[in-house]
Amino acid sequence: MERIFLSPSRYVQGKDVIKKAGTYIGKLGSHALVLADKLVWQIAGNNLAKTLEQSHIQVEKVIFNGECSNSEIERVTKLSKTANSNVIIGVGGGKTMDAAKAVANNLNIMLTTFPTTASTDAPTSAVSVIYTDKGAVESYRFYNRNPDLVLVDTRIIANAPPRFLVSGIADALATWVEARAVKQSCSRILIGSAPTIAGQAIAEKAEQILFAHSVQALEANKNKLVTPAFESVVEANTLLSGVGFEAGGLAAAHSIHNGFTAIDGDIHHLTHGEKVAYGTIAQLVLENRSLNELDRYIQLYLQLGLPVTLKDIHLENATDGDFNKIAEVATAEHETIHNMPFKVEPEDVVMALKGVDAYVKSYKKRHGWKDE
User: Fold this and answer.
1) Residues 246, 190: one domain?
2) Those residues with Cβ within 8 angstroms of residue 207's Cβ, 6 or more apart along the chain or in another chain
3) How many angstroms separate the CA atoms of 102 and 108, rounded?
4) What's residue 138's pLDDT?
5) What is the pTM of this model?
6) 319: which of 10, 92, 328, 364 lies 20 to 30 Å off by Cα?
7) What is the 3-state secondary structure of 272-332?
């Protein structure tokens, strides 16, 4: 079986890189379609468009409607084709960038991702998560190439709400936990090839960086500061996690996240990373990892304010039917939970979800953590 390493062609991170966007993007095309939601247009989209126009790049502005669904991808594809754009720029969060990837693939044009938060590893990957128009995970789309350019302006990201940075940390902390399981089971990565040593090493390095610098980076973000710790965590959230998951593989944590999207309620107000956080602890429970490792993750999650109990994820009143539905979706035939080094049944997932809650409550009591 082949080993395949996937990564963007160029990754550029630093303060005020938006000012140099024309220089970088101008090498990809002369007619850009910029895709961003209404809020992101105010935060960065208009400034980016102005910078591109100053570099003599023609700009088409398109508002993203919020879900990376088949209907939204089709709508933006038609607009891009009509405009005859030769580069598309996805600005904002993961769903916007995933939609831009799909459009670039449909039209075979160049692709730039410009995240305005460090909340996801979507900027670097060659995969889109496709949702229904109502926000439930529907499928994945895989592409033949990763983004041609990733631009990460850390001054913009430092001005984003800290919750987004924390969400990205949670998503990135799943990277090594899942890649390690793939390695142990000799499973495949998302595109069907064997994982690479490089991808697994990058995934493990992401975990090291996040345990070393996350708390300090969060304090910098709260004060809108770009410090070395903040730069390191942004890179871990975006580049290391992105390359690590794609070249290292996924397992139970993200499958459990997908299970969470199948039920109604306030859990939908949580971010992707917040739901993955709970899925990561659940995977550690499924694996029966040592108390030292489990406590290490729980301590950091509590320091960062991540959800670690059923109450935190709005499932304290969930019925057995709710848990069973989550577990059935998480263990569907196509899900990455089957990359675990042992067979996982729906009942195992239910027990792990409840087991996390029971153990964390005990941990908090022993260590003096008080519920708000």
Assistant:
1) yes
2) 173, 175, 176, 177
3) 10
4) 87
5) 0.94
6) 364
7) HHHHHHHHHHHHHHHCCCCHHHHHHHHHHHHHHCCCCCCCCCCCCCCCHHHHHHHHHHHCC
Half-sphere exposure of 270 (CA within 13 A, CB side): 31
**In the block, residue with structure tokens 């995969």:** 127
CB 249 within 8 A of CB 188: yes
120 and 241 belong to one structural domain: no
Rounded to the nearest 10 degrees, the angle between the axes of helix 320-330 and helix 346-367 is: 110
Q: CA 206 → CA 191, 202, 210, 218, 364, distances in Å? A: 21, 6, 6, 16, 26
Q: What is the CATH number for 329? A: 1.20.1090.10
CB-neighbour burial class of residue 297 (10 A; exposed 0-12, middle 13-18, buried 19+): buried
Please tell me whether residue 35 adopts helix, strand or coil conformation. strand
Domain end position, chosen among 137, 158, 179: 158
Report the 10 Å Cβ neighbour count for 137: 18
The first and second tokens of residue 206, run together, are: 């992401």
Residue at which a domain ends, from 109, 136, 158? 158
CA 294, CA 285: separation in Å to the nearest integer? 8
Q: Which domain holds residue 58?
A: 11-158
Residues in the chain where the model's pLDDT stays below 50 = none
Active site (catalytic) residues: 171, 254, 257, 272
User: 341-355 burial, b for 16+ CB within 10 Å, e for fewer?
Assistant: eeebebebbbbbbbe
Nearest Cα to 157, choosing from 211, 88, 238, 214? Answer: 238
State whether the Cα torsion 257-259-262-267 is positive or negative. negative
Instruction: Supply the pLDDT for residue 372.
Output: 59
Query: What type of residue sits at position 69?
Result: S
Q: How far apart are CA 120 and CA 170, in angstroms?
A: 9
- If asked whether residues 138 and 236 sit together in one domain, one would say no
Those residues with Cβ within 8 angstroms of residue 346's Cβ, 6 or more apart along the chain or in another chain: 324, 327, 328, 330, 331
- Count of domains observed in the chain: 2
Helix (H, G, I), strand (E, B) or coil at 34: strand
Please tell me the distance from the alpha carbon of residue 353 to that of residue 325, in angstroms, as a whole number.
Answer: 12
* Residue 28 belongs to domain with CATH number: 3.40.50.1970
pLDDT of residue 341: 97
